[in-house]
Specification:
134 residues; mainly alpha; 3 helices; 46% helix
């Protein structure tokens, strides 16, 4: 079904491009027309304008239909949980008590100063660094 609709969509797109390219470039497209003969210069322009409108409407409706069919056909039937990480248990606090439980250990928000300074390279040990003042 999806492949058939996709082929029809491509055919409509190619026909729409062809009809647009056959129209005159001096303007007046989609402005309506007179009831003159179908194959006169004016009638041919009106015919191409009507054809363009119909093909554009079909193109938009078929685009929406293809999106709907793709969503229905490609939706997973179940959620794959094989790569999900197990959730860490969080101790629950009693309602109305903002204090932490007695057995809860404090969580450090930042690295201690000595660890942070140890991570920085020493300027005297780097080869391109400025010499130390004496």
């Amino acid at each position: 079904m999806f492949t058939f609709l996709l082929v029809v969509h491509v055919v409509i797109a190619v026909a729409l491009v062809g009809v647009i390219l056959m129209q005159r470039s001096e303007g007046g497209g989609l402005t309506g027309g007179s009831p003159a003969g179908l194959m006169s210069a004016r009638g041919a322009g009106d015919f191409l304008t009507r054809t363009t409108t119909i093909l554009a409407t079909l193109f938009i409706l078929l685009s929406i239909a293809l999106a709907a069919v793709a969503t229905l056909n490609r939706a997973p039937s179940k959620i794959d949980t094989s790569l999900a990480r197990p959730a860490d248990p969080v101790p629950a606090l009693p309602v109305g008590n903002s204090a932490a439980p007695a057995d809860a250990s404090p969580v450090p928000l930042a690295a201690p100063a000595e660890k942070a300074s140890a991570a920085k390279p020493d300027a005297s040990k780097v080869g391109d660094a400025a010499p130390a003042k004496k």
